[in-house]
Amino acid sequence: MEGRTAVDDVALGREAWSVLDANRAGAVTVPAPGLYPHQWNWDSTFVAIGVSRCDTRRAGTELLSLLTGQWRTGMVPHIVFGRVFGRGLADGYFPGPAVWRSGEHPAAPNGVPTSGLTQPPLHALAVWWMWRHAKDREEACDLVRRLYPMLVAQHDYLATTRDLGGGGLAAIVHPWESGMDDSPVWDTPLDAMAAAPGLQEDEPFPDRYVWLAQRYRDSGYDPAYLRAEHPFAVEDPMFNGIWLASCQALAELAPLAGADPAPHQEAAERIRAGLLERLWGGEAFHALDLRSGRLNPMCTVGGFGPMLDPGLPRDRVAKLVGVLESARFMGAAGYPVPSCEIRAPQFDRSRYWRGPSWVNTNWLLRRAAAVHGLDGLARLLGVCTLRLVRQAGFRECFDPFDGSGRGSRDFSWSAALTLDLLA
Ligand code: 2M8
Q1: How much is the average pLDDT of 155-184?
Q2: Residue 247: band (very low, low, confident or very high) from pLDDT cuts 50, 70, 90
Q3: What is a single molecular function from GO for this protein (predicted)?
């Protein structure tokens, strides 16, 4: 980047490592000890991606420790609770183990309290990233062999229990599962839910979120309940775009584990067909609310997720890039990419997933641009993201107009992905 020197990059890299070390307790790197003092699912995949060029072992232990929370159904929970930073299991974050009650479920791991929801399945792509960039090839191959069956179980769970719409895509059953908790995309299904018995129409966030999680829990985390009754079921383009990319990663990793890549390639094709048939809205991909049967008209950063697929038809890629570069997103933001389109009435430059720019989604879009050979766009996304962290630090998210930091400081995925962007 203009005016920066290799020395500046070395210093930034050192700062990133010191954040990651401060946020680490044993094998686990938490997102931010003050706000999120347990292990979070996709946060750990971003940490693994970021450290993998320098420290294969740390990338592996991060993922292996997350997967100690995997349920026997294959579901990888969105939070794995631990006694870290001198805190108790129930400390520091609500809803904690007493709400999820995973210990009462026969499929949950023994002695490892977890949530009952999942998050975007970036794990196989993270393992592929670790294997692709590892200096110690033997250690990386060994890790792939250990992790492979867990990743297969995770993908099988999504393909069976979560194909609630029957069209080859996985449905999320709670906004927390998207990783983009308060995105305006969830407003409509949440408002529709207000009619459900037991919920007041004016129930505030996060009460509605807890209520929804408790309903699922009270069903015994039952797949049949999810199909027939659960009021929130949405096919999200980012979740499914990430899943598709992870299927492609698993196909490449399968031979290392002595397995056949074909089922993963077929799964990727099924997801691509599902995305194109079900979530394409003419200019971008949109979330499909399975309860109302409607595509959400809102365009958010999640709508670019399917661009992670190198096999996405070129005309769709061109349309997506048109929207991404327009004044709806990058064209009017000093610090891309806003999490919600700027012209939307719900856009809010300082509220988490309702407007601010995030390092993890910028990293995903940079990867998406790279797989389509859009080198200029990929470079721009990398440069702009590094400018954000240089100016404001490793914040959780950033104002897309002036680049000022929002949310937690010294946030793990912002530090980890900076390491990857500097490489
Ligand atoms: C945020 O989500 C948690 C619930 O999972 C919360 O708001 O309390 C999101 O940004 C999510 O993507 C992230 O994984 C989590 C921890 O960083 O925080």
Answers
A1: 98
A2: very high
A3: Glc3Man9GlcNAc2 oligosaccharide glucosidase activity
pLDDT tens figures, 202-211: 666 668 999 9
- Ligand 1 centre distance from Cα of residue 329 (Å): 23
- Pairing outcome for strands 234-235 and 171-172: antiparallel
Residue 1 domain-assigned (yes or no) = no
22: number of Cβ within 10 Å: 14
| Higher-scoring residue by pLDDT: 8, 84 | 8
Q: Please tell me the distance between residue 294's alpha carbon and the centre of ligand 1 in angstroms.
A: 26
**Boundaries of domain holding 398:** 6-422
Residue 328: both structure tokens together: 């709806």
Q: Does the residue 310 lie in any domain?
A: yes
ipTM value: 0.99
The least confident of 83-87, 165-169, 175-179, 207-211 is 83-87
Secondary structure (3-state) at 351: coil
In a domain, 31, yes or no: yes
3-state DSSP call for residue 417?
A: helix
Pocket of ligand 1 (CB under 6 A): 31, 36, 40, 42-43, 78, 176, 179, 181
* Structural domains counted in the chain: 1
Query: Which of 99, 180, 181, when mutated, tests ligand 1's pocket best, judged by the most ligand atoms within 8 Å of its CB?
Result: 181
pLDDT of residue 51: 98
In a 3-state reduction of DSSP, which class is residue 226? helix
Residue with tokens 């985390």, as numbered in its chain: 221
Q: Residue 358's domain is classified under what CATH number?
A: 1.50.10.10
